[in-house]
Amino acid sequence: MRTLLLALLATTAAAQCGTLTITGTGAPGTTLTVAVHGDPNAIAFLVVGDTAGTTSIPLGTTSLDLGIAEPFIPFGIGFTNASGDASQAFTIPNGIPQHTTLGQGLTASFGMPPNFSLSFCTSNVVSFSIG
Q1: Which phi and psi angles does 14 have, rounded to 5°?
Q2: What is the pLDDT of residue 62?
Q3: Contact 115, 42 (CB under 8 A)
Q4: Is the peptide bond prior to 93 cis by the omega test (within 30 degrees of 0)?
Q5: What is the pLDDT averaged over residues 38-63?
Q6: CB-based burial, 108-122: b 16+ in 10 Å, e otherwise
Q7: Which of 9, 18, 31, 117 could connect to 111 by a Cys-Cys bridge, CB 3.0–4.6 Å?
Q8: Residue, of 109 and 110, whose pLDDT is higher
Q9: Mean pLDDT of 77-99
Q10: Which CATH class is domain 2-130?
Q11: Cα–Cα distances in angstroms (integers) from residue 11 to residues 19, 43, 65, in the given order
Q12: What pLDDT is recorded for position 61?
């Protein structure tokens, strides 16, 4: 499903042009805030995985390159504003075991017809803890 979602979104390779910031302790019952800065008026995602590395998703003549090794999970953050900023706050549930993981921000921008296009902007990879 994840590969299908990313394949449907991608027609050009990602460029590391964004920034990911994650704030909060990640302790149970607290709030963790994810802020993605990338392309303006784009869809923002947080990609979460346990291992740093390279994942290249081939898309015909190009590929989407991420700084997190598979397996990983993409989470929708929302739409970026005209400045390229989107954020989402998550409440960490009680009883979740402590775990350190990695996150990478990603924005997807669509060009309008008649010149349909799609581009990605990836961010830095950030380590964060939950639980």
Answers
A1: -80, 145
A2: 57
A3: no
A4: no
A5: 87
A6: bbeeeeeeeeebbbb
A7: 117
A8: 109
A9: 96
A10: mainly beta
A11: 22, 15, 12
A12: 53
